[in-house]
Every structure is written in structure tokens, then in C-alpha cells.
Amino acid sequence: MFSAKTEQAIAKSLLWLCTGLTIMALVFIVGFVLVHGLPGLNLSFLTEQPRRMGKEGGVFPFVVATLHMTGLAILIAAPLGVGTAIYLTEYTRESKLTVVIRSGADCLAGVPSIIFGLFGFVFFVIRLKLGWSMLSGGLTLALMVLPTIIRTSEEAIRAVPRAYRDVAFGLGSTRWQMVTRVILPSALPGILTGVILSIGRSVSETAAVMLTAGSSLKAPLSPLDPGRNLAYHFYILATEGISKSNAYRTAAVLILAILLINFSAYWLMRRFVARRS
Amino acid sequence: MRARGSWRRRDLSKQSPGLTERPALGGSLTAVGRKGLQEWGTEKILFLFALSAITGLALIAFFILHEGLPIIISKGLQGFVLSTDWAPSAGRFGILAMIAGSVAVTGGALAVAVPLGLGSAIALTEFCPRGPARLLKALIELLAGIPSVVYGFIGLVVLVPLIRNVLGGPGLSVLAASVVLGVMILPNIVSISMDAVLAVPQSYREGSIALGATNWQTVHRVVLRAARSGIVAAIILGMGRAVGETMAVLMVAGNSVLVPHSITDPVRTLTSNIALEMGYAAGEHRQALFATGIVLFVFIMILNAVAAWASRRRT
Amino acid sequence: MGYLLALHVIIAAIALTSCGRTPGTQVTVAGSTSVQPFAEVLAEKFCESRPGVSVVVQGGGSTAGIQAVREGAAQIGTVSRALHEEEQDLRSVTIARDGIAVIVHPSNTLDSLATEQVRDIFSGRISDFSRIGGPRGRVWPVTREEGSGTRGAFQELVMGKTTITPKALVQSSNGSMRELVATDPWAIGFISLGLVDGSVKALHIDGAEPSRANVKNGTYKLCRPFLFVLKSEPHGAAKEFIDFVLSDEGQRLLEEEGLVEAESRPH
Q1: Does the residue A31 lie in any domain?
Q2: Which positions in chain C touch A224 (Cβ < 8 Å)?
Q3: For the residues A114-134, what does the mean pLDDT come to?
Q4: I need a surface site. Which of A168, B14, C76, C117 has the fewest CB within 10 A?
């Protein structure tokens, strides 16, 4: 058939074609949105109130809602997640229990966002009587990002060299002192990476938020207020044809925010790895 | 906390770096004095924190089952899962068309994402110098966080009219959903496959080259085979993400309740079904949507378990 | 570490003390997505003149609105269809009437249809435009999701006992339906008359032009009520809002947006 050399040449070109297509597809998406959305995007878009259901004006209340919800989610998930990681690495040895805890977190990571939305709706909104609110949305988001924080925190904590712990004990510290004064500061960049990635996920989430946080046009000042996050507002603008230009602008804001968030996480991780070696 | 007798004894220092030397504080009997009490308390609190993920999962499972099981029981599993007749206002809840929709769209997404993703992964790990490869991988991963609604929107304004003009039909179709989903899971597949291929020991490659094989022959006869379990895990995880995706599919699939006969047919997936009607549903209708959630949940859990099993297997 | 904990406690304290609705009275209005944009406009105008009051408008759907009112999650529920038998225990106020327009793409040569023809298209019996006087091409009916008030009204007024074909494309709001029909030359759908704009063409039904005047005088038959639904006698800020909506100013606002005034005023 073909000689081995020709076969390799053909294979290589096909593989590079795949890579090219992949990169092109992803760059096209970002490019398309930015090209249509950047012109006309200015600071006032972010600080103005929307008028006429979003046809005119800005997206200020939705930015507030996004920050509010994400802030609540991290406030709840970070202590729980880091605490879990600390417990798994510092306070127990491997046992059936730890396996169960980890599998639970892994399973949670695989649950689709609409199921989180259903659960949030039936549990937080209705059962706990929180109503459509930032709190309902934030609690639901917290559950969604918990596995990520657990996983990245555990990795970061495990990467801290044994020697640090030995020295701490040698100096007579209690375990908790060792954790808070030695381990955590050392593992902080890794843990922050997980937190930042979780922020990214909360910002993009729509399905779960749709069913738990409501869709009000006002900026939510209290955790019990309903609100619409930026991604959900974009969805409404886009599908209802309210304003193509505002839709593109909102999308541009979203994409820039995500790129910024992911980039910081990546950069932080690089620094963490560099510190280690 | 005590090492169970039946659990294999492991080198503690490798397992839990924190559990070295320090006298066991796991037993409350040894906690003495204020510091000791504080330690005991901290440990218990952290234990409770650690249960949060499991508790969350259990709560979700419980509530979804609680809301959805009654209708599966009353209408019968067969009638629910095997009937294509979805007419909530008439009390008929067959979700077969949606299952077919989910399968079609996921299959299509994999058909798009696996060749492109695997191909890219191989190209970047085996045929590309380290520096540019790392940069490109980072770039691809950077784009993984783009919201699904943005993907859906671009699908709506670019892909759907294209399909409608070139292939006919309403444009909102299996094809549109498959392409959009495929591109969405591409970064995941590339990333995990790359990790799997990079994990293959260099000695395998060197041995193969020493025997006279070309790079490509080494790749497809040795490396890929060795990385198989990791690649399979990547595909299955991508599949899980595709099945669970809601917003993008909602925007481009058309949402008709019919079993698709061609890729230009509109279709509705299990996730879209829930998202579409949840806001309005009450009573039995709502229960049926939760029951759809149960089916989805079970399916994803199975996929996750298979992925975990596949990635742990040694070839 | 210590100050991180303190920070947490401070934030939690702030969150808890500001728990409870934002200061001032708040009226929650939830329900039909058809009514939502109009309620938003009314709320905006109402709150301009009453600084202490805020009106929050949510969607969720007509049925969800009724439930929200029953459970106390909202003071006012909005519904875009007539109440069913089992919902008669709630108080309802008609705030406006809205026509349902059957829409097609502007380039579509069709101008007018009979109700039976619309029914046959949506039931799947007619699947080609040429059978109703249009060009050859597959018709794509577009409908709303089950449980939508607009769909419910359409079902009642046009379909009667016939079911809408499962082959129909489904969109989740008036806006997305209009958007779809505006971009697909072969689609046909139905939306709130008040939301028809230049991007779609509204068909004459049984000879009657779809206009507000015709809805008012009854010649255009596809018409459904927009209702405010309450659990009991309205009082306080809620009552003020309802009074505003039914006042001349409120009704004029609705008419400007494309609705038809309510016939009756409340007791």
C-alpha cells in the first residue's frame, strides 16, 4: 500500500488539519463576538441601567447580580471545599470514608447544571422558602463549584513538602496551627486557582441560575432579592431579538471577563508550579 | 479514622502527608487540656465540612427522586420511557422522543469532537515541539470557559441559517446542535487526551523507534494503545458533558417532540425538555419533568462510573 | 488567618442584617411572560412617582404565577389566558385584552387565512404552502411550550379539540417566536398582537385585519384577557399599583404598547 513514510506524511497533515480546525473554530467564536460587540462597548454600558427591557441602556443591575451571586457562592463553597481538602489530607488517613467523600465530590462534579437548577428550585426556592433570590442562586452555584475547589485545594495541599510539616511539629505547633500558618499560605496559589476557576464557572452559568434566582431587572441589593445574571440576560436578549447590538455587547463583556478570569487562574498556576520546582 | 483491618495497609506518609509522627489526635481520649480540646473541636468541624459534598449529592438525589418517582410509579416506567407521546396537558408523558434526541445530538457531538479533538491532541503531543504545544494547549483550555449561551447564540446566527439555506429544513436541527455541542466539548477532549498521551512513558516510544518504526507508526501502534484507557475516559467525560448541556441545545435544536429521521430534523433533548417547560409546569407535569431529571441523572452517573473505571484500568 | 476569619464574620453579619427585602415596600408580580414586558413598563412608570415603593416583575409563566400567588411568593400573579375551573377561587382583575396574531415571514406571499386553515397547518394536516395559496415549500409551524398562556389561548381559540402537531418547532417566549419567524421564510407562528413589529407579517384571519381596533370591536376574534390574579382583597402598595394600572394613565400606557384596554373596571 503506502510506504511507511507516505503514511506518516498523510497522517501528519490530517492531524495538523484537525488541530487547525479546532483552533480556528474556537478563535472564530471569540473573534465573532468581539468584532460585533467591542465597537460601541464603553464603560457606560456597564454602569447604566437598562431601559425598555434591555433594548437600550446598559447592564449595570446584571453585573451587580452576577457579582452578588458569585460572591455568595464562593463565600459558601470556599470554606467548605478547602476545609474538606484539609480534612482529607491532614486529619485522616486513607479509608473507605475518604474514598466515599472523594467519590461524592467527583459525582457531584458530573451532575448537569439543569439538575442543579431543578434541585435549587425545589429545595432552596420552595422548601426553604428563600424564593427566587441571590441566596438561592448562590447556594446552588456553591454546590456546583464545590468539587472543583475540593479537587484543586487537595492537589495544592498535597504538593506542600513533608519537610514543612515536620519542621512545624518539631517546633511544637498544634496541627491546626501548622495548617493555618504553614500549609495554607504555601498552598494558597493553588487553592486560589481553584477559586478563580469556580468564579469563571459561576459567571457563565445560566440553566441553574434561571430556575433559582429569578429574572428581575433591578439590581439585587439584599441576598433575598431576585436578580438576573449577565449570562441569563444575554440569553434573553439573544433569543428574543430584543436588541442585537446589546446582545453582542453583553456577550463581549462575558467573553472578556471569562478570558481574564481563566488567564489569571492559568498564570497563578504557573507561578505555583514554578515556586515548587 | 482508624485504619480498618480489611483495608490494605498503605504507607501513611505517602497517603496523608499530615499524618506523620504527631501522636494520634484522632482519638478523643487523648485530647487533654485546652489546646487538645480545640484540636478535637477543629477536627470535628472539618469532618462536617468534608461531608458537605456527599450531603449535597444525597440531597439532590433525594429531592429529584422525591419529586419525580411518584409519576414513574403511577404511569409505569415502560409508558414513561418507551412512549413518544408527550402531551402533558392530556396527561401523557412519554419521553422516548427526547431520549432519541439526546442520543442523536450527543452522538453527533462526539462525531465532531472526537476526530478533531483526538487528532489535535496527537498532533500537539507527538508532532509538535514542547513550547508551542504548551502554548496551544493553554490557548485551547483558556477557551473552555466560554459560556454555553454564547456558543448557542453563534450557532443561531451563523450555523442555523447556513444549514437552512444549504441543506433545507428549518435549520434548527440535529446537525446544528451536534456541531455546537461538538465544538463545546472540544477543549475537554483535547486537554484530557493530551494528558493521557503525555503520560505514556517515553521508553515505549524509544523502544518502538529503535525497532525501526516511523513516528506515526509508533504513535498509532504503541502510544495510542497505551493511552487507550485515558482517551476512552476523555471521550466518556465529553459525552457526559454533551448529554448534560442545556442552553446551547435549547437555542439551536428546534425542540420538536419527534424522533429525528435526518440530521436536518428538529429535535428535543432531555435537558431542553426540562428547561423549556419547567417554568410553567404544575402538578403531574412538573413531576414528569423531575422524572426526566431522574433519567438524566441516572444516565450521567452511569457514564461517570464507566469513565472512572476506564481511566483506572491498566492496559 | 485570623483576619480572614474576621472578614468572613463581617461579611456574614452584613448579609444577615440586610436580609429581608430591600427597604421600602415591595410588590412582587410574577407570571406570564406575555404580560411581563407590559408589567415592566407599568412598574417603571408607577415607581417613578412613588419613591418608597418598588415593583419587581418576574416571569415564569401563567401557571407559575398562579402558584406563586397561592404560595404567597408573589402578591400579584399575571395570567395571559382565562382562568380554568380549579383556579376560580382566586380573585382576578382584567387589566387589558390582547389579540393573538398569526405571523409569517415578511417575504411570505400569504396575506389571509381562515381559522380552519390555521388549524390544519398547526395540526400537521396541511404541510405545504402551495395548498393554501402560497409558493411550494414545507410549512414549519412554530408553537410555544406546553403550559404557556399564549399557547393555551391559541389552543382554545383556534385549535379547539385538535392537538398541535408534535412536529412543530417550539420556542420559549413571544420574543423568541417572533425572532424565529422573522428569519425563516417557511415558518408560521403566533404571538401577542401587542408585540408584532416590522420584522414579521401578521395575517388577516377570517377576513379580519389584526389590529387593536378590530380586537376592540370584536371583528378580530383571536383575543385573550391579561389578568392580575390575587389571593384576596388587595391592600397597600399592591392595591395602589392595581389602581394605577386600571387608571386612565395606566390604560393609556398599555394602549401605547399595543394592548387593548380592559372592558371592565374592578368593583
Answers
A1: no
A2: 19-21
A3: 87
A4: B14
Burial class from Cβ neighbours inside 10 Å (0-12, 13-18, 19+) for residue A227 reads: buried
Q: For residue B165, what is the nearest residue in chain C, using CA coordinates?
A: C184
Domain architecture of chain B: domains with CATH? 2-13+23-50 (no CATH), 56-314 (1.10.3720.10)
State residue B210 phi and psi, 5-degree precision.
-60, -30
- Which of chain B's residues have a Cβ under 8 Å away from the Cβ of A80? 49, 52-53
Give the three cell numbers for residue A86.
Answer: 484539609
Who wins on pLDDT, C5 or A106? A106
Q: How many Å apart are CA A231 and CA B184, to the nearest integer?
A: 16
The answer as to whether A272 is a domain residue is yes
User: What residues in chain C have their Cβ under 8 A from chain B's Cβ atoms?
Assistant: 59-64, 67, 138, 140, 145-148, 155, 163, 166-172, 180, 183-184, 186-187
CATH label, C3-97+225-261, candidates 3.40.449.10, 1.10.150.120, 3.40.190.10, 3.10.450.50: 3.40.190.10
State yes or no: pLDDT of B5 exceeds 50. Answer: no
Chain A positions in Cβ-Cβ contact with residue B26 (cut-off 8 Å): 91-92
pLDDT tens track for C95-137:
888 889 999 999 888 888 889 999 999 998 888 888 887 778 8
- Under 8 Å between Cβ of C245 and C112: no
Residue A145 pLDDT level (bands cut at 50, 70, 90): very high
Question: Model confidence at C152, in pLDDT bands (50, 70, 90)?
Answer: confident
The three cell numbers locating residue B267: 429535535
Residue B62 at interface with chain A, using a CB cutoff of 8 Å: no
**Residue pLDDT, tens place only, C16-61:** 544 444 445 778 888 888 888 888 888 888 888 887 788 888 777 7
Nearest to C59 among A131, A215, A218 (CB): A215
Which tops the pLDDT comparison, A128 or A277?
A: A128
Q: Where are the domains of chain C?
A: 3-97+225-261, 99-217
Chain C residue set in contact with A, beta carbons under 8 Å: 1, 8, 11-12, 15, 18-22, 37, 40, 54, 56-59, 71, 73, 171-176, 178-179, 182, 199
B139 pLDDT more than 60: yes
The region, left, alpha or beta by phi > 0 then psi within -120 to 50, assigned to residue B151 is: alpha
Residue A90 placed within a domain:
yes
Range of the domain at A245: 43-276
**Which of B84, B86, B279 is the closest to C59 by Cβ?**
B279
Model ipTM?
0.88
- Long-range contacts made by residues B20-25, C-beta under 8 angstroms, separation at least 24? B20/A162, B20/A165, B20/A166, B20/A169, B21/A166, B21/A169, B22/A169, B22/A175, B25/A175
Contact B250 C172 (CB under 8 A): yes
- Subunits that touch chain C (at least 3 Cβ pairs < 8 angstroms)? A, B
Residue with cell 448537569: A112
Please indicate if any CB of chain A lies within 8 Å of the CB of B132. Answer: no
> Do A154 and A126 meet the contact criterion of CB atoms below 8 Å apart?
no
User: Residue A163: inside a domain, yes or no?
Assistant: yes
Distance (Å) of CA A85 to CA A103, A181, A187, B140, C118: 13, 16, 11, 28, 62
Q: How do residues B42-71 score in pLDDT, each as one tens digit? A: 888 888 898 888 999 999 999 989 988 888
pTM comes to 0.85
Q: Is there a common fold for C3-97+225-261 and C99-217?
A: yes
**Nearest CA-CA partner of C202 in C180, C181, C184:** C181
- Give the best-scoring range by mean pLDDT among A135-144, B92-101, C79-88: A135-144
Residue A217 confidence (pLDDT): 81
Is B49 in CB contact (< 8 Å) with chain C? no
What mean pLDDT is predicted for residues A80-105? 87
